[in-house]
Amino acid sequence: MELNKLSITVRGIILHDDKFLLVKMPHNNFYCLPGGKLDFNEGIEECLERELVEELGIKPKIGRLLYVNNFILKGTEQCLDFIFEVKNGKDYLDLENVNRTHAFELSEICWKSRDEDIKFLPEKIFNDFKEGKVLSDEVRFIKQY
């Protein structure tokens, strides 16, 4: 398979009271973690901070790198997701009264518990959340293709 493009995305795992903060984008029918694409000449933690402030209006306290997700999108784009712990989940409880300059990029923001049956990508992360294993001292690698 010949790949045409490589993209890097940085996402955050935001937890509070045993719930997961998830988002949906207008063009997707599944939930995912908040974050976005790395800009040229931008650090990965800098990207996560920028994306979460733009979309959710709150500056994250970035913790450990938890996952690296490697997958092929539409058969032509190889994607790498760097997924970090965000330590200040409580700060994201009320997003109604914050400045979200890129709120238009999201069609839904919600908190989900481990017993809910939802479509979430990548599945491995939500399965780890259901099993209480999403936070770990080791980086986990996911390969989907």
Describe it for me?
- The chain has one domain (5-144): Nucleoside Triphosphate Pyrophosphohydrolase (Alpha-Beta Complex).
- It is built from 2 helices and 7 strands.
- 14% of the residues lie in helices and 37% in strands.
- The radius of gyration is 15 Å and the shape is globular.
- The longest helix has 13 residues, at 44-56.
- Strands 1, 2, 3, 4, 5, 6 and 7 form a 7-stranded mixed sheet that branches.
- Mean pLDDT score: 93
Indicate the percent of residues in helices. 10-25%
Distance between the termini: 11 Å
Label the structural class: mainly beta
Major sheet details: 7 strands, mixed
Q: Strand fraction band? A: 35-45%
Tally of individual helices:
2
Along the chain, the helix and strand elements come as EEEHEEEHE
CATH fold title = Nucleoside Triphosphate Pyrophosphohydrolase
Oligomer: single chain
Keywords, please?
145 residues; seven-stranded mixed beta sheet; Nucleoside Triphosphate Pyrophosphohydrolase; mainly beta; 7 strands
Question: What's the arrangement of secondary structure elements?
Answer:
Elements (H helix, E strand, L loop, with lengths): L4 E12 L2 E6 L10 E3 L6 H13 L5 E12 L3 E10 L21 E6 L9 H8 L9 E5 L1
Parallel strand pairs: 1-5, 4-7
Antiparallel strand pairs: 1-2, 1-3, 2-6, 4-5
